[in-house]
Design a protein that fits this description.
The complex is a heterodimer of chains A (152) and B (289). Chain A has 152 residues and is of the alpha+beta class. Chain A has one domain: Jelly Rolls (Sandwich), CATH 2.60.120.10. Helix content of chain A is 35%, strand content 28%. Chain A contains four helices and eight strands, in the order H-H-E-E-E-E-E-E-E-E-H-H. Chain A is globular, with a radius of gyration of 16 Å. Chain B is α/β, with parallel strands linked by helices. Helices cover 22% and strands 29% of the residues of chain B. In chain B, the strands form three sheets. Chain B has a seven-stranded mixed β-sheet with strand order 10-9-8-7-11-12-15, with helices on both faces. In chain B, helix 5 links the parallel strand 8 and strand 9. The N and C termini of chain B lie far apart (52 Å). The chains are: A alpha+beta (152), B alpha/beta (289). Chains A and B meet through strand 5 and helix 4 of A and strand 10 and helix 6 of B.
C-alpha cells in the first residue's frame, strides 16, 4: 500500500494533495496494465473507474457513423483518463483503447464517490481538480473546433 | 572614373529595397497537399551581398501577379541558396506554386527582426509551433544545431491539422537522431491509423517539464494558437521577456512605409515579425484593422 501511495503522489494530478486525502483514496487505487490495442472502456458503458496514466498512450475515439471512427484525443503519461465517474449518470461518452502498452493507476469510481460523500472536503478537492481538467479539455476542444491551421 | 563609380556603387549606394533582384528556382517540392517549397539560387552578385537572420522574411514576387511576404525557411549559414516554404492560399502563392525549376522570380529582402538565438545561448529553448509556423522557425533550429553546445535542452512542440499536414517529416526524424532535440508532435484530427498524439499543441506541455527561469520560448503559428501557448508558458512561469512570437499582418512595402501592417505603434514588417511578448503584450489581443 505504501508503494501505491508513493506512485499516486508522483502523478502530477495528485502530487500536491494533502496527505490526509491521499490516505483516504489510496484504498480505491490499483495498478493496471493495458496491452497495445486493448480496449479500456466503451461508449455507453458504466464509468466505474478513472485512470492516472503513468506510461503509454490511450486513444479516445467515437463512432462518427458515416465519417468512420474519429480519434479526438490521445492521453499520455501524467494525464488523466476519464471524468465520467464523477458526473451522473456515470457513463462513458467515448471509447478508449491503448495504442501502446499503458501502465496506469485505476481509481474505483464508486469507492471514491462514497469517500467524497463521507468527507465533503475531499469531495470538493476532487471536484476542483476535475473541474480544472474539464476546463482544459473544453478549451482544447474549442481550439480544435476553430480549425486554426485551415486557410481559406 | 569608372572605377570610382564602381566603388561608389558597392559602398555608398545601397540597393533600393523596393526593387526586386532575380533568383532562379533550383528545385520545387510539395511538402503537403497545399504547402510547397521553392529552393532559390543566388547569382554570383547576390551571393556576396545577401545574408539573413533566422526569422526574417522576403517579399517574393511572382511576375504578373504580385508579391507576398514569405519567411525564409532555410539555413542562414548557406550562401548558395535560400528556401521559401509557402502555403498555397491566394493568387500570388498559387502562381508561385505553378513555377518550375529554372523559372525566375523576384525577391526583395531580407526584412524584419529575427529570433533571439544569440540571447538564448546558455538557456533551454522551447519552440512551439503550429501548421506552417514551423517554416519561419526552421532557420533558428538550424542555427541552434550549429551551435548546439551553447544551448541547454532544446524542445520542439509541433502541432498540425492532420498527420498529412506535418511539415518536414523526414527531417524531424533526422533532427531527433542527430541533434539532441526533444520533438513532440500532435495533430488536431485523425482517424485510427495515426499512432501519434491527437489534440491541440498546448496539450503537449503536459509531457515536458520546464525550468522556467532558464527557458527561452519561440512561438509561431496562428494567433489563437499563440495566445493559448503564451497562457501555458506563463502558467509554467516562463518570464514574459523570454517569450518571443512571430506576428503575421498584411505586409506590402516591407520597409515600414505604406502602413498596411501597422500594429499599434509598430510596423510588423520593420519592427517585427518577431517580437518579444513583453513588447506586444498589451496589444496582442487587438484584432487586425
Amino acid at each position: 500500500m505504501e508503494d501505491l501511495s508513493r506512485i499516486l503522489r508522483s502523478h502530477p494530478f495528485l502530487q500536491d494533495l494533502d496527505e490526509e486525502y491521499l490516505n483516504q483514496i489510496v484504498g480505491c487505487a490499483s495498478n493496471v496494465v493495458f496491452h497495445e490495442d486493448q480496449s479500456i472502456f466503451k461508449e455507453g458503458d458504466e464509468a466505474e473507474k478513472f485512470y492516472l496514466i503513468r506510461n503509454g498512450k490511450v486513444a479516445l475515439e467515437f463512432n462518427g457513423r458515416d465519417k468512420g471512427r474519429i480519434r479526438i484525443l490521445t492521453i499520455g503519461p501524467g494525464q488523466i483518463l476519464g471524468w465520467s465517474w464523477i458526473i451522473s449518470p456515470y457513463r462513458w461518452h467515448f471509447d478508449a483503447h491503448a495504442i501502446e502498452e499503458v501502465r496506469a493507476i485505476a481509481l474505483d469510481g464508486e469507492c471514491l464517490r462514497n469517500k467524497c460523500e463521507q468527507d465533503p472536503n475531499l469531495g470538493y478537492e476532487m471536484l476542483k481538480r476535475f473541474a480544472h481538467i474539464l476546463e482544459m479539455r473544453l478549451n482544447a476542444t474549442r481550439m480544435q473546433l476553430l480549425d486554426v491551421y485551415k486557410r481559406v | 572614373m569608372n572605377e570610382i563609380l564602381e566603388i561608389e556603387k558597392k559602398t555608398l549606394v545601397k540597393p533600393d529595397p523596393m526593387v526586386p533582384f532575380l533568383m532562379k528556382i533550383r528545385k520545387t517540392s510539395w511538402d503537403t497537399n497545399d504547402i510547397f517549397s521553392l529552393i532559390l539560387e543566388h547569382d554570383d552578385d547576390n551571393k556576396k551581398t545577401f545574408s539573413f537572420k533566422p526569422g526574417q522574411f522576403n517579399m517574393v514576387y511572382a511576375f504578373g501577379q504580385g508579391e507576398a511576404a514569405i519567411s525564409i525557411s532555410s539555413d542562414s549559414s548557406k550562401d548558395t541558396s535560400i528556401t521559401h516554404t509557402i502555403h498555397k492560399v491566394g493568387y500570388v502563392t498559387s502562381a508561385l506554386s505553378q513555377l518550375k525549376k529554372g523559372d525566375v522570380i523576384g525577391i526583395r529582402g531580407p526584412f524584419g527582426s529575427s529570433w533571439p538565438v544569440e540571447e538564448a545561448k546558455g538557456k533551454d529553448v522551447v519552440i512551439v509551433t503550429g501548421g506552417i509556423g514551423l517554416a519561419p522557425l526552421r532557420p533558428a533550429i538550424y542555427y541552434i544545431f550549429k551551435h548546439r553546445k551553447n544551448y541547454g535542452r532544446v524542445i520542439l512542440l509541433y502541432g498540425a491539422r492532420t498527420a498529412r499536414d506535418l511539415l518536414y517529416r523526414v527531417e524531424l526524424e533526422e533532427w531527433t537522431r542527430k541533434h539532441k532535440i526533444e520533438i513532440l508532435t500532435t495533430v488536431d484530427r485523425s482517424d485510427s491509423s495515426w499512432r501519434g498524439n491527437v489534440g491541440v499543441v498546448t496539450e503537449l506541455f503536459s509531457y515536458i517539464k520546464l525550468e522556467p527561469n532558464s527557458t527561452f520560448a519561440m512561438v509561431c503559428g496562428p494567433e489563437v494558437m499563440m495566445k493559448y501557448t503564451i497562457d501555458e508558458l506563463k502558467t509554467r512561469g516562463v518570464p514574459k521577456h523570454n517569450i518571443y512570437l512571430s506576428m503575421e499582418r498584411n505586409m506590402k512595402c516591407a520597409i515600414g512605409f505604406c502602413g498596411h501592417c501597422q500594429y499599434s505603434s509598430n510596423f510588423v514588417c520593420k519592427d517585427g515579425p518577431v517580437f518579444s511578448y513583453s513588447h506586444v503584450k498589451r496589444i496582442f489581443d487587438v484584432r487586425e484593422l
